[in-house]
Amino acid sequence: MRHGNLFVISGPSGAGKGTLVARLVREVPDAWVSMSVTTRAPREGEVDGVHYRFATSEEFQQLVACDGLLEWATYGGNCYGTPRATVEERIARGDQVILEIDVQGGFQVREKFPAAHLVFIEPPSLDVLEARLRGRGTESDEAIATRMETARVELSRKMEYDIRLVNDDLDEAVRALVGYVNEQAEKIRG
Length: 190
Ligand code: 5GP
Description:
Elements: E1 5-10, H1 17-27, E2 31-33, E3 37-38, E4 53-54, H2 57-65, E5 69-75, E6 78-83, H3 84-93, E7 96-100, H4 103-112, E8 117-122, H5 126-136, H6 141-155, E9 163-166, H7 170-186
Parallel strand pairs: 1-7, 1-8, 2-7, 3-4, 8-9
Antiparallel strand pairs: 3-6, 5-6
Bound molecules: guanosine-5'-monophosphate.
């Protein structure tokens, strides 16, 4: 018998969270990924309602004001937040709800949902991380420098997460993440 759960997946930009989460949903049928709202401009190829709900600052502030977000944070000068209602519905329905969010958001979730499981995805090294960010070709040098600085801050908090997975070998990291999610889903709760 599986139960609904809330999972936070955090880690520096470029650690491979998106790829891992995409593989997770292919392998775990009751996994559901929340779609965040952001004031960041869409990158090339990003579609509103698929990758993010892209919003203006005014729309975002309205969501904050009406308590429509479970958590929210500013990252690289833009706001990002998790819509509350759908997440709560999905947990109640018994799904494995996945939030791919930054560490500031992760700790807010832990405050509100102490039963949430916090997973930190680590890059093999900071050099590998920088190479991945440059390889994407989507960010300016300045944006990459900011993300590397943020990465150091995020990595300094990894021990506060429930588990850490190093994304060195992708298949191995997927196996570990899928195993963890299934284990929590099937855990007998007192
Ligand atoms: P990106 O701009 O690369 O899509 O995302 C930047 C950072 O914001 C990533 O670490 C991503 O996980 C995080 N992020 C995405 N959505 C949310 C959200 O709803 N809340 C929070 N706190 N962080 C988010």
